[in-house]
Amino acid sequence: MPELPEVETVRRGLSDLLEGKKVMSVKSDWHKSFPNDQRLVDNYLIGSKITEVKRRAKVIIINLDSDYCLMIHLKMTGQLVYVGDQRFGAGHPNDSLIAKLPDKSTRVVLTFKDKSSLYFNDQRKFGWMKLLHKSRLNDEPFMKSVGPELIDPDITNTIFVQRLQKRPGSNIKAVLLDQSVIAGVGNIYADESLWAAKIHPTTLVKDLNDTELATLREELINVLKLSIEKGGSTDKNYVDAEGNKGSYLEFAKVFRREGKPCYRCGSVIVKSKVAARGTHTCNVCQIKKKA
DNA sequence: CACTTGACCTGTCCGC
DNA sequence: TGCGGACAGGTCAAGT
After folding, report:
1. Whose CA is closest to A249, among A14, A22, A2, A72?
2. What's the pLDDT at A89?
3. Is residue A156 scored above 60 in pLDDT?
4. pLDDT of res. A221
5. Is the whole model's pTM more than 0.70, yes or no?
6. Taking residues A85-99, what's their average pLDDT?
7. Domains of chain A (ranges, CATH numbers)
8. What's the average model confidence in pLDDT over A112-124?
9. Greatest CA span in chain A, whole angstroms?
10. Which nucleotide has the shortest C1'-to-CA distance from A30?
11. Which of the listed residues A119, A122, A143, A153 has the most CB atoms within 10 Å of its CB?
12. CA to C1' distance (Å), from A272 to B12
């Protein structure tokens, strides 16, 4: 999906657009995208007002003024796009996307009292929107296992290193992608931060010293913060709450740059498979290390 | 237990 | 133009 910067960008947009909106109706024609009991939907979603839009790792949480909330995971291709009266305005930059909604990727539509709507689009149907009692949120499997986020200032380098070193025999990229170790990093920002830290993705955690891990942490934080500033990365599907694409990939150093020269040394960026994911590296700058 | 692979889906692109 | 296969930003369950 969208990784932490994309989800945070969506959250910020929705927070401005949705707070105070009263839900009037919900429509979904793909059960796995909206796996909720109709009675609960009728009693605790319809007629409720949105009070707050939060994020934890790559999950969005929309709090309602009932005791319930919506927990949303966008997975690979999910979008949450709000359409208000700009659909009818002239010259809006996103007219083309917004005017077409709902489209064939639309899985759930929430309509509000003021006639505006929130579209949950998800081409690949991996994502979901669950209505949960607020007190049960932390019983969800994802919430139970999810680790801390590096953009949280309380997560010191010591904590970061301790968490990674619980997986000494795994390659560093697989560990960065494991949400129970560190939350929010996905394929793009794993590749970007490893390039910046000059670490090859197949290097085993136990073969990295404290200096290298400290550098990796710094670079992860830099990459995540820069991407949030740029509104995230749009590779194919990702858009924010108003249908805008993110611009981070214009600044990417390796991701999707296979065949192009490394910005540091000029060698050709190559694509391989690590941890079952497409992986971009400069194999001159990023040497696989063995202790 | 630690770690890796397949499954969940649709759409697109590439080679034959 | 069609068809098969690989691949796509994520996470689980099931395998070794």
Report:
1. A2
2. 55
3. yes
4. 98
5. yes
6. 64
7. 4-145 (3.20.190.10), 157-237+247-281 (1.10.8.50)
8. 97
9. 62
10. B9
11. A122
12. 20
